[in-house]
Structures are given as structure tokens and as C-alpha cells.
2-dehydro-3-deoxy-phosphogluconate aldolase (Oceaniferula spumae), 218 residues
Amino acid sequence: MSKSEVEQAHAVIVEQMKSHRLVPVIVLDREDDAAPLADALIAGGLPVAEVTMRTSAALASMREISKYPEVLLGAGTVLTADQVDMAVEAGAGYIICPGMHRSVIERCLELGVMVIPGAITPSDIALAMDYGLSHVKFFPAEAFGGAKTLKAMAAPYQDMKFVPTGGIHAGNVSDYLAISSVTACGGSWMVDRSLVNAGKFDEIQTLVSEAVQLVKLG
């Protein structure tokens, strides 16, 4: 793709994240759970998924979810350039990693794939800017001071946008979304791993719907 095509593709992803304000962070232990989970996300009004590459079922699950074109599918916990290739092949449209993994960032730049690396210091943000990135993931958000810290750290970097993740739940998500530089928040409370493993997709749909309403009201 040309530079303009890459920029346009990234802009579409950002607009979708900005529209939904939430990125469900999903751990899937079984490929068979991917389709009913995607159905629950769509029915709940939140067709966004960050499937973490923490399990052996992650790639196959992404392939299943990628069959739903309305779902904004990304891969999380991506640690190596090889994992970038595997995730993109499985249908991931964007890549999220827990830290400033240079090999991941550079491979994504080569492929023209949007990458959101983890950042917890001004130096991390500066490195992301050197790479020309528009977004970083403030992670783990609550462990590093929460919304108050993010607001203070983001202040000097007006052009950088954030997707805070880690310890965010229904009780504190509004604090993060109130920060102007936050595009969306990552969270797992509405797609809890134990609920997925128990096959409680109706309950997940309810939690997703409640999360969507909370963001609208907040």
C-alpha cells in the first residue's frame, strides 16, 4: 500500500476506536468460543476485539473472528516480529504490545499495519513519536498511577493519543475517558475469561451492552 493508503487505513481504525471508546481485551482458550463471542460483542453493540496472543488458540480464534467483517479485530500481547506476521495472516488489522518492542514496531511499519505499543514513561512516548506513531497503550494503567498519572504525563504530548489498559473496569473507566487524549480504553471485565470458558455468552452480551451504555452516559 502507498503511504496515503496506509494513513487512510489507520484513520479508519482510529475512528472506529474513538466511536466505541472501548477495546475488549480477550483471552480465548478454545477456538470454538471465538464465533459465539463475536456474536455476543456484535449483539451487545461493541464490535471490537483485541485477542491476546497468550494461548495456543489465539491465532485460530482470530481467523474465526475475522470472518465477521463488522468486528474491528486486533492482536494483543504481541512480543516478536514473527508474531506480527502470524497475527496479520490470521486477520488482525492492528497490533498491540505491552511495551516498546522495537522489533514489533519496526515490522508493523514495514507492513503498514497500525501498532499501539505500551508506554509508561515520557521516554517511551518520545520513542513512539520518533517512530511516527500516533497512539500508545498506557499499560498497566492502574498499577502506574491510573488516570491521574496519565493525565499529567500526557499533558506535554498534545499530538500523542492513548489507549490505557490494565486494571480498568466499570468503576473507573469514565475517569480515563474524560482525558481528552484518550481514544479508547482497553478492558476485560465485559469479556471475562471465566465467563467465556463457561460458555456464558448471554451474560457476556449483557455485560457488553452495560459497558456500552456506561460509556454513552459517561
Observations:
- The two ends are 38 Å apart (CA to CA).
- The first strand starts at residue 22 and ends at 26.
